[in-house]
Structure formats: C-alpha cells, structure tokens
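Hello,

Following up on my earlier ticket. Below are the four sequence lines again, exactly as submitted.
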Amino acid sequence: MSKDALHEVRDSLRRFAEERDWGQFHTPKNLAMALAGEAGEVIEHFQWLSAEQSAALDDRTREEVALELADVMLYLVRLADVLEVDLADAARRKLAINAERYPADKARGRSDKYHRL
Amino acid sequence: MSKDALHEVRDSLRRFAEERDWGQFHTPKNLAMALAGEAGEVIEHFQWLSAEQSAALDDRTREEVALELADVMLYLVRLADVLEVDLADAARRKLAINAERYPADKARGRSDKYHRL
Amino acid sequence: MSKDALHEVRDSLRRFAEERDWGQFHTPKNLAMALAGEAGEVIEHFQWLSAEQSAALDDRTREEVALELADVMLYLVRLADVLEVDLADAARRKLAINAERYPADKARGRSDKYHRL
Amino acid sequence: MSKDALHEVRDSLRRFAEERDWGQFHTPKNLAMALAGEAGEVIEHFQWLSAEQSAALDDRTREEVALELADVMLYLVRLADVLEVDLADAARRKLAINAERYPADKARGRSDKYHRL
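Thanks for your patience. The regenerated structure is below:
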C-alpha cells in the first residue's frame, strides 16, 4: 500500500466536506458531538448482551457494528484533522504514557489499574 | 513508513494486553464502554466553548484533547481487533455509502442531510 | 413533601445559574454535551466490571456513582427546563409508548425486544 | 400530586421490568450502557445546530428531543433504583457540593470554573 490508511481516510473526508461545503459545520465542537453520538450507537449494540454474547456476534450484527466503528473512525479522523492533531503520533505517545503508567509486572490481571492508579 | 499506522497501533495494543494479561477484560462489551467513556471525555473539553473557541484551542488544551483523541483511537482499534473487523476497510465502505447517501449536488451546505435523508 | 423533587431540583438549578450568570452557557446544545459527558463518567465506573461486580459495588464506589448519577440528573433537569419540556410528563408518555411497543406477553425474558421490534 | 414523580416513575419501571422478566438484563453495567446510549441520541439532535438553533427547535424536533430526554430519565431512575441510590437525595447533595465549589461571586460569568477549579 502506497499510502497510510489514516491519511487516505483523512484526505477522502477533506474532499467529501469540500464537495458538499460542509466545512462550516465541521467545527471541533460539532465533530466532538458527532463522535460521541456514534460511540453511543456502538454501545447500543452491546448493552443487553452478556460478555460472552458480545464476543460471538452473528454476521448481521457484526457487520452493523463494523459500520458503526467506521462512523466513529470517520469523525475521529476528521476531528483530529480540523484540530491539526496527528492521530498516529498522538496514539504512539499515549501508548508510551500507558506503558509507564501500568508497568506489566504490577498491572498483570488487574483491571483496577486502569482507573485507580 | 514500512507499516500502516493502524496496524502498528493494533499490534502494539495486542502486545500491551498480552503482557498484562488484560485479554480477559477486553470483551467487545467492555471495550465499547471504554470507547464511549473516552468519547465522553473528548466532549467535556468542548461543552462550554463556542464554535469559534473550539476552533482556537490554546496549546495546553489542544494537547490534552490530542491525548483524549488518542484514547478513543486506542479503544477503537482494539475493539475492531477483538471483533476481527478491518477498520480501514470498514471506513472505506462507509465512505462509499455516505457518498451515495449524500450526493454532493443535493447535500451542498445542508447539515440536515446528515440525519434527515 | 410539599414539592415534587424534580421541581425542587429544577428551581435550585435556575437559581444556581442566575446567581452565577451562567444562563449564557446553558444553551440546549451545551447542556446536551454536558449530559453526555456525565453519562460517560457513569460508564467509566462500570466498564471493567463483570455484571455481578456491577451489582455489588463497595461503598466508596457506590457513593461515587451516586454523585455521577446526580450529575446526569442535574443536567437532564436543566436541559429539559431550558427546552421547556415537562420531564415527568415526557417520562409518563414514553412509558406508555414502551408498554405498547413491548407487550408483556411477547417481550417476556427477551432483551432483543428492546431494539429489534 | 400525591406521589413524587421520581417515585412514581421508579415504581412504574419496577412493574414494567417485572411483568417482562427483564430484571435479569437490568444489571447496573447494562443500564449504565443504556443510559449512555440514550444520552448519545440526545446529542445527535443537536450536533449540527448552532447554539441559537438549539434554543429554537421546531415543534417536531422538540417533541423528539422530549422523548429522548424521557429515555435518559427512565434509565437513570432505573439504574439508581437497582443500585439502591436515592436520586433526589444525591442530586441535593451534589447541588450543595457545587455551591461550595463554585462560589457565586467568583464563578460569575466564567464557564471555565466548571472544570478548571
């Protein structure tokens, strides 16, 4: 692949917004709302499922969820773009922060380490 | 770059979870919740800002938001991975669906096209 | 009790906003964001818990969650107020809609009735 | 009114869940997800609106939003009930905390007081 997928999606979204004159609606505030709205739709697919059921979706539901995840990604990439945030770089930096915050030997098998450290 | 950023992050998260034995917590249900929780944190940065203020963040806030966007991305990539969803492929497919749903000539400058068509 | 709790909270919030000149920030758009942000905080308390653990919170966590639920309620009541929506009336009407949508005999023990009917 | 609206809704929801044998799905974890999902639906109504537009909804949209707020309230009341949290009491306690945290004279007209104090 010649182009990174994140960059490809970012460029597609730029064109998409330009062709529709939607830049005026794509303020960070509005895009943050759209991102949260789509995350809410992801959650609705899982809310009545047990942990086990959530890991064994039927094909139809799995495809619906895939497109909801795509929606989250589209707004995430677009929001990062209008904020001039390099998403891949931010993700790498956050991974490094998390690695320091949750040392493997101390965090092993403990989910409370996520939010109580 | 030799490796796509999404794949790189996915692989880092796999290693991260493995080293901490966190796979047991990473059910799709739990990860969907974490994704929504992080989207909620993004929103909290913007809730009292005007549209204009949201587009002119000071450096400190912009960096905080960048790391929140990174959190959303990390959970999004991880959730897609445990569901065996190809995120880049899903995003491309959703872009194609949106292009058909919102034809440029009809959707121009109309935000209602997003949710009322 | 001489006054309905919802009305009491609504009136307290009106006074609170007035005394701080916060009416200018309390647009429906901003309050909807605040509501979603607080719902995100509720979720963060439960994301790594099993169903069983979520039903057996220790006292400290339960009190933290109680105050998060309070935050959701405060923004919900305030948002309804600025929209001039009667929350108790809307809840009663929605309950009646749900009763018709999910007849007890057909919906018994089926969670899919929630979103697939 | 002889009965507080919050108690009335709580009791209706108890009956509703009992008649449908839905108690098994109403774990705090699941209800927290449903609450966040509904808050996401509220947000979707406002995401492309300006602050001004959000304060001047047409009748159709306002009624749609009223029923979304009702959904948030139903899950909020139900979640509080299964956690044995007194919602009205928690709201009052949170209001008292906020009054101390944001003294009227210092917080006047400053939205940053919400999250930066």
